[in-house]
């Protein structure tokens, strides 16, 4: 403390170590299987890794790349949006490469918010949303996704969303497919969100990093809905789709005006990053459809493997339609505190998971929910499932 003040400013006082860092450290310390932090234990395609090596050797990107990203990658992002979704973008003015989606989220919120602006985010929300809203001096307004007993999935209540909008609302921070619940918003839901944004003149920042990890339904980019092109900032990332989470290559696509605003902040955060990897990701975005289809099919199988194992171990399982996470409820074990449960899980059975409770403002809604990732090798998932069966006998 100097001047009687703690080092961390007031806006961020509620934030400590991220739950992902905490739980990954717990996994290392206890030698547990880490089904907490979402990162694959198998690297992405060999040819893409080789493309990065080639770029390094050829001296592509070893010095500062251009601020908005290398032209090869910006063009590949624009082509990808056109090919997959029919969205036309100018790679020179409407695409911005960032240090992962994490920087894109931070730069977008720091650019678009004035202190005091309200941001509506779907709860449970990804942890960096809360921190970045706070950094920007905004205030978060959670709209809680509710488990639906009939479908076994989490759903958005559109009336609750509408009711959350106030004259101070600046933007909706959307995430579909949704981490941690695995919810994929439907055409009807997205249409209603779009209509609301237009009616109340709101911006939408939409985090679509799991766009290719959809097992049921389809991913529809919000920017494609009527009236949304001009008011949507779309965020993507290579980390999830190509299994290179350490490369930290992400991007923003939007109108020239909005991209310029985000770039203004981004240039003072990192300026640029990941030079050689940008060239490799440009190649990854052009992989044939078979890559995406196989990756998805493989992950669907892993989802079912882990989901069946969790059910057999006694968890209530909410079936994810997308992402590589499964949210469960520990209530069937007679337990209520997800955080305490996750802290004890290594000792009880040698597995690490994430307590969803930390992604909520509502102290009750997420209290007993725990997230497991299934982006791991089959033998690791089998072993985790075996270990989790021990929970029944512990109780
Ligand atoms: N958004 C969501 C919903 C995420 O789950 C993650 C975690 N990977 C990120 C953003 C961050 O992505 P990146 O690793 O590209 O920074
Ligand atoms: N997105 C990853 C997850 O949800 C974690 C990324 C991180 O550690 N920041 O598990």
For this structure, what is the CATH class of the largest domain? Alpha Beta
Secondary-structure arrangement, i.e. CATH architecture of the largest domain: 3-Layer(aba) Sandwich
Strand order of the largest sheet: 2-10-9-8-7-3-4
Classify the secondary structure makeup into a structural class: alpha/beta
Q: What number is the mean pLDDT?
A: 97
Strand content: 15-25%
Question: Could you list the spans in which at least 5 consecutive residues all have pLDDT below 50?
Answer: none
> What is the CATH H-level superfamily of the largest domain?
Type I PLP-dependent aspartate aminotransferase-like (Major domain)
Topology, number of strands:
15
Count up the domains: 2
CATH topology of the largest domain: Aspartate Aminotransferase, domain 2
> What is Rg?
21 Å
Q: Summarize the biggest pleated sheet.
A: 7 strands, mixed
Morphology call: globular
Q: Level of helix content? A: 40-55%
What does this molecule look like?
With 395 residues, the protein is of the alpha/beta class. The protein has 2 domains: 10-44 and 290-394, Aspartate Aminotransferase, domain 1; 46-284, Aspartate Aminotransferase, domain 2. Helix content is 42%, strand content 16%. The chain has 14 helices and 15 strands. It has helices at residues 19-30, 46-58, 71-85, 100-112, 127-135, 158-164, 187-199, 238-242, 256-269, 275-284, 289-313, 338-349, 378-388, 390-394; strands spanning 33-34, 95-99, 118-123, 139-144, 146-148, 153-155, 169-175, 203-207, 232-237, 249-253, 316-318, 325-329, 351-352, 354-355, 369-373. A 7-stranded mixed β-sheet has the order 2-10-9-8-7-3-4, sandwiched between helices. The protein has a 4-stranded antiparallel β-sheet with strand order 11-12-15-14. The chain has a two-stranded parallel sheet with strand order 1-13. α3 (71-85) runs parallel beside α10. The radius of gyration is 21 Å and the shape is globular. It starts with 18 loop residues before the first helix and ends with a helix. The structure holds 4'-deoxy-4'-aminopyridoxal-5'-phosphate and glutamine. 4'-deoxy-4'-aminopyridoxal-5'-phosphate binds next to α4.
